[in-house]
Amino acid sequence: MKPNFSKINIRMFGGLFIIIFSIFEILNLVFLLSIPIEINETSTSLIFLIFNLEIVTISTSLLWICFFIIVLCFLILGIFMIKRSLTKINDYTFFLHIFFIGMIILIISIIKFNLIYLIEASQINDNNNLITMGTAIHHYDLHLYIYYMWLFLSISTSYEIVYSLYITSKGLLLLLKFKQSSQLSYGKKIN
């Protein structure tokens, strides 16, 4: 049971990577939302398209807002994880924090994946033809890098899910080992 090793892992692979991925996701979203898409014979950037309620529904606009808020929450969570790993707290509290932070990351990452799917499946009105947002991003005469920009959102969310499973299991393992060692030392004191 080495809390220093766990703190270094959380700081390095958790906080720093989540901050880096969040910054890349924010930059990715800025570039993705600034691409021009031709809908209804006019070329508008994606940001104006998703807030044009004549072309998309209000739920699509809300999905994009929620997605951007979740990306910002991950940035804040990464900073919190680094600050938490630098503070001096006892082992039990630290292991409990590892477990709960992992669960929070898991729940938020699953919600984020759902938002990506719902955004991709949301419909756009193109000359009275309904097309999905995924078709608009992947199909229209756009460059290949836009497809990879959209794919990066799923890749970073997959990393967050795998990392949250690891950190949750590691926190639970360390918590159970700590409880077991404290019960054994308590039993030795009684005898």
Give an overview in words.
With 191 residues, this protein is mainly α. The chain has one domain. Helix content is 78%, strand content 8%. It is built from 6 helices and 4 strands. A two-stranded antiparallel ribbon has the order 1-2. Strands 3-4 form a two-stranded antiparallel sheet. Helix 1 (3-33) packs antiparallel against helix 3, helix 1 (3-33) runs antiparallel to helix 6 and helix 4 packs antiparallel against helix 6. The relative contact order is 0.16.
Number of helices in the DSSP assignment: 6
Strand order of the largest sheet: 1-2
Order of SSEs, N→C?
HEEHHHEEHH
Distance between the termini: 25 Å
* Secondary structural class: mainly alpha
Mean pLDDT: 82
Helix content: over 70%
Largest sheet: 2 strands, antiparallel
Low-confidence stretches: none
CA radius of gyration: 22 Å
State the total count of DSSP E strands: 4
Task: Detail the topology: elements first, then pairings.
Layout: H1 3-33, E1 36-39, E2 42-45, H2 46-50, H3 58-86, H4 91-121, E3 123-126, E4 129-132, H5 133-138, H6 144-190
Antiparallel strand pairs: 1-2, 3-4
Briefly, what is this?
The chain is 78% helix and 8% strand. The chain is mainly alpha-helical and 191 residues long. Strands 1-2 form a two-stranded antiparallel sheet. Strands 3-4 form a two-stranded antiparallel ribbon.
